[in-house]
Amino acid sequence: xxxxxxxxxxxxxxxxxxxxxxxxxxxxxxxxxxxxxxxxxxxxxxxxxxxxxxxxxxxxxxxxxxxxxxxxxxxxxxxxxxxxxxxxxxxxxxxxxxxxxxxxxxxxxxxxxxxxxxxxxxxxxxxxxxxxxxxxxxxxxxxxxxxxxxxxxxxxxxxxxxxxxxxxxxxxxxxxxxxxxxxxxxxxxxxxxxxxxxxxxxxxxxxxxxxxxxxxxxxxxxxxxxxxxxxxxxxxxxxxxxxxxxxxxxxxxxxxxxxxxxxxxxxxxxxxxxxxxxxxxxxxxxxxxxxxxxxxxxxxxxxxxxxxxxxxxxxxxxxxxxxxxxxxxxxxxxxxxxxxxxxxxxxxxxx
Length: 351
Ligand code: NAD
What we know:
6-stranded parallel sheet, binds nicotinamide-adenine-dinucleotide, Dehydroquinate synthase-like, alpha domain, single chain, alpha/beta, Rossmann fold
């Protein structure tokens, strides 16, 4: 008999192609009349299209979203939201922009609508990561969960192929850790497996043809499921390692996930046979860790931390930080094993 606790989510999800045209009605459904649009400088054109759709309901665009949600940027955005008397925010973009929406939500109580354009999955989580004084901290706060998420596959077609691949593997990492999470429940296991099937099917197609709409839709579908897993069950060693590497060495988020994942899976494998079997099945391989390593390599994704700017001299410090705070992992986390895992990942060796 299975015994479990499942947490459902309150977010309304709209999925399809051309779904951005529903944004005015979704804002209206939330009773919102003064929407502030958030984006990065690079997504100004996509944001402008949403602004046109909203007409007078859009009261401004704040186009300074930045990686890792710096508090200075949030403070500027909050001041702007107040100056235009916004009653809600709409983030169009990846994890950085949605993170800004969450940071505004926690300070002002403004509800967020999200139009995700990468596969990072932040839109489905109550997790807020913020950076202040070079230190990144993460909190789980139900109030930052977007109220409405509109996935429009058309908006993902412009995501460069190389970014798409690493973003997709970032989503796979959420699914992998959900498969062996301490608090996993039957629904999280099903969603995580389905996410891996969708992403292993779609990413190789996107790597060849970035404009394949069906593959793009499949990847967004996988990202939605993987993000939901990240939002509902606890993560373990993989997310801890990536958090340390991103926060302390400034390594790029999705690329770091891509390099680290096979190595953590190799470490955790002996303690999580059911998860390993599901990962291997999604990859049509016998070996989950080797399968993930080869998958990333075949897609032309980075496989070595040294290629992402990680100094070899940082391995010891990273290992120390990874083992410092206690957290659950299917296999005990010891400094020697973490150092060995990081050394292989740094050099780009097979897991
Ligand atoms: P990102 O949001 O930083 O986007 C990367 C770049 O791609 C940006 O310049 C962006 O404007 C551009 N871009 C995004 N979509 C595009 C598109 N369709 N076409 C053209 N350009 C596009 O990258 P990300 O990987 O989505 O997010 C990373 C950030 O999100 C990190 O700070 C990470 O910590 C955070 N994150 C948080 C959670 C969470 O649950 N809180 C989950 C995943 C990631």
